[in-house]
Amino acid sequence: MLNSSKERGINLFKMKFRLVLAGLLSLSLLTLAGCGSSNAPAPTSPTPAPAEKVLKIGSDIAYAPFEFMDEQQHPTGFDIDLINAVGTDMGYTKVNIETCSFDGLIAALQAGKYDAIISAMTITDERAKTVQFSDKYFKSTQYIAMKTGANFKSLADLKGKKIGVQLNTTGQFAVEKVGMETKKYDTTPDALNDLLNGGVDAVVADAPVVLWFQAQNASAQIESVDANTGAEFYGIGMKLDDKELGTKMNASLKKLIDSGKYNEIYKKWFKVDAPKF
């Protein structure tokens, strides 16, 4: 009897304990349900970062002061500042600028490697057959660079001389147009350095590039004169059929000019206000 009573007591205790435990569990569930209905936001998947909108640009980055590498090997120069400003105005999050030989820029553009090319490229009728140019953004002319004392005054004075030019530039075209032979280089600085070394008698190239080289090599005894070949205008090149990009590019160029940003960039590199054209 004693054992049976004890056993019934134990069983009764276990039953009460189970009832209390069940009640506590129910209360916990109700409490949790109340937390779920609070104002705390439900967990959500993280919002993906917006994709970068990249403008792919090709340039022959060896043509100071328009495009060249700084001491950290980053592209810099007038064209670089300009295309970055244009790209930002057009809504691009990044302007990716890659170097390419000037002679290969148009082919790379046509192959789809770039959206546009900027490389102090003169707008010509021949180039316009395969490239859609933006509105003109820079006025230039051809200069004749020579060693001090050479006393060349015009292209006619270069007859019979060794004349250095950059391949497929308007400097080459201007010299060959008057029937003279040229020694061709991959870059204008290559031609000018060969002038210093005596490899050529003169170099015909864009005035700003010649003047920049003279300023950077003040002790080199180089002088220059206008070749009197007429004014030239640079343009940003795009695919012929990409009319939408062309329209946006021109709109941004105009905006930069009207706002004074273009003149700010021009003055940074050439120390004078931009001419009207």
Question: In words, what does this structure look like?
Answer:
There is one protein chain. Helices cover 39% and strands 18% of the residues. It is of the alpha/beta class and 277 residues long. It has two domains: 54-138 and 234-270, Periplasmic binding protein-like II (D-Maltodextrin-Binding Protein, domain 2); 142-230, 3-Layer(aba) Sandwich (D-Maltodextrin-Binding Protein, domain 2). The strands form four sheets. It has a five-stranded mixed sheet with strand order 4-1-5-14-6. A five-stranded mixed sheet has the order 10-9-11-8-12. Helix 2 (78-89) packs across helix 7 and helix 2 packs antiparallel against helix 8 (261-270). The longest helix is centred in the N-terminal third of the chain and has 35 residues, at 2-36. It is globular and about 70 Å long. It starts with a helix and ends in a 7-residue tail after the last helix. The model is unreliable at 19-40 (pLDDT under 50).
What's the short version?
Helix content is 39%, strand content 18%. It is an alpha/beta fold and 277 residues long.
Quick tags:
five-stranded mixed β-sheet; alpha/beta; single chain; 277 residues; 14 strands; D-Maltodextrin-Binding Protein, domain 2; 8 helices; globular
